[in-house]
Amino acid sequence: MRQRPQFPGSAPGGGAGLPASALRGVVDLGALAAKPQPASGSGPASQPGGGSGSASQDGAAGTGTIDSPLVFDTTDATFDADVIERSLTVPVVIDFWAEWCGPCKQLSPVLERLTVEYGGRFVLAKLDVDANPMLAQEFGVQSIPMVVAVVGGRLVPLFPGAVPEAQVRRYLDELLRLAAENGVTGTAAGGEAPAEVPEPPMDPALAAAYNALEENDLEGAAQAFRNVLNSNPADTEAKLALAQVELMLNTRDLDPAQVRAEAEAKPDDVKAQIAAAELDLAMGSVEPAIDRLVGFVARSAGADRDAARVKLLDFFDLLGPEDPRTAIGRQALTRVLF
Fold first, then answer.
1. Is 104 part of the annotated catalytic residue set?
2. For residues 171 and 159, what is the distance between their CA atoms, to the nearest angstrom?
3. Of 101, 209, 224, 281, which one is the catalytic site residue?
4. The whole model's pTM is what?
């Protein structure tokens, strides 16, 4: 005799109860089910056309709206293979529905669409309670729609009623977390990963700048980035790239020993100090580069002081606001300015 998913009877609200030996994490699903839901439906159905829970606004009327191997009908005759055996490798969500049930026709398309969207991480078994009354009775179904899951042969109650799509997603995410904790992490055949969204084409002017950079044409790249900024001054990518290219241009022909000797001999020469600071920055000595110009700002005045200040701001833009050295450098600059 076949082994049904383990559940000892009906729980309040028409859902199936869960034994103490059942899956870990089901308490979390129960807490999720207890969250307030918009009330737009009545209680348990007592006649055709009835239903429980609140109607989702996301699904169109009707069932069986998606043709996918991940969504299938199950019956009393096929339940073992459809649900119990399959649940050993992938979670199986069961949608209890009937043709006369209005809320079912709102919920079912949502479940079907999400099943395909999740790409085979679970499958959806649709069970018509009118055609399979014995199964509905075994699961303690008192109103429809009702949604449960089976993971590793164990029952996991999900929710009664046609709940909103956002809440359905929360149940499904929690179900997958629970399944993973219990080693049920397979992917059903027929599941496809979401298609990658192609990146939008690059601005031709920006592409020209990067092409020049790849060819080591620094002057051409700098001019191309300036062209981009002339058309769009707010283009942060072009601004950052231009600052990097200009730093490379300013330091590529320098003799490090000569630059540092000149900066040492001329502590009050703004050009000598900026050259030494740029060389330090290009060689990765960020803190010494900042400290050099902050010190120059502290002891200078007028146009020279302003030139060093502007160069420091260029350094900060180049490093970016996330770099902690930017914040430290800005604080040091503020102290000497004010």
1. yes
2. 8
3. 101
4. 0.44
> What are 158's two structure tokens?
């999900």
Among residues 22, 98, 104, 307, which one is catalytic?
Answer: 104
Tokens of 14: 């028409």
Strands 146-151 and 154-160: antiparallel
**236 in catalytic set:** no
Report which residue type is found at 229. L
First to last CA, the chain: 86
Distance CA 74, CA 16 (A): 18
- Of 157, 208, 146, 125, nearest to 22 by C-alpha is 157
For residue 328, CA distances in Å to 103, 135, 282 come to: 60, 68, 19
- Provide the residue type at 200 as one letter: P
Task: State the pLDDT at residue 197.
Answer: 52
Kind of pairing between the strands at 154-160 and 92-97:
unpaired
Phi/psi for 123 (5° steps) reads -120, 160
Q: What is the pLDDT of residues 165-197, one digit of tens each?
A: 888 998 999 999 989 988 888 888 765 544 455
